[in-house]
Amino acid sequence: MNTKERIIEEAANMFRTYGIRAVTMDMLATRIGMSKRTIYEIFKDKDELLRGVMNWMSMKKAELIKHCLESSGNVIEAIFMMMDIMMDHYRKMSPAFKLDMKRYHNDIVRKMELDNAFPYDNSRDILIQGVKEGVFRNDLDIELTDRCLKGMTKINEKDNPGDFEDEEMIRNFFVNYLRGISTRKGLELINLYNKKNLTGNNTIK
């Protein structure tokens, strides 16, 4: 791990734990064990550092999606795995971090996606894979369905930003969305994995 990667990873951990405003470059430098000057040689200010952190988080999300798709038995299972992991990740974020992102860094939020319950940037590939597996309807308009998913998510985030962060609302939104595009086989899998989640037995074999 090089110096830039060390800074980004530690900044991500500190931001998520204490909030963005509460973390100073001095605190970060002390935590890493390097001079503040070294940090400023790589990142001109905290906003640039935050962009680096968001890029890092997006990269980690992509790795997670790949892992879920490769290790699951089907697309439905992979989606429930992703929802569980993403929700766990979101719960571990401090309220201060989420509040800071909303209040003081809206420009960055608009340009870059935070970790959400569903991988928006990969949803088209997941829809295609689901059709191939027979869990999504073969008459599905992939492009339109993908746009509708992203559009509905943006509307909810804009109109009900606080409510959309609620885990139950997010899960219900995507479970009902999946039901609408699924075959009988897909519905059976949704019921299976949703039941496991509701009973607390969500261990994926």
Kindly describe this structure.
It contains twelve helices and no strands. It is mainly α and 205 residues long. It has a single domain, classed as Tetracycline Repressor, domain 2, CATH 1.10.357. Helix 1 (3-18) crosses helix 4 and helix 8 (123-133) packs across helix 9.
What is the topological layout?
Blueprint: H1 3-18, H2 25-32, H3 36-42, H4 46-71, H5 75-91, H6 95-104, H7 106-111, H8 123-133, H9 142-159, H10 161-164, H11 167-181, H12 184-199
| Range of helix content | over 70%
Q: Note the run of SSEs as H and E.
A: HHHHHHHHHHHH
Mean pLDDT: 81
- At the fourth CATH level, what is the homologous superfamily? Tetracycline Repressor, domain 2
What integer value in Å does the Rg equal?
19 Å
* Backbone shape: elongated
Observed structural traits:
single chain; mainly alpha; Tetracycline Repressor, domain 2; 12 helices
In short:
With about 200 residues, this protein is mainly α. It is about 75% helix and about 0% strand.
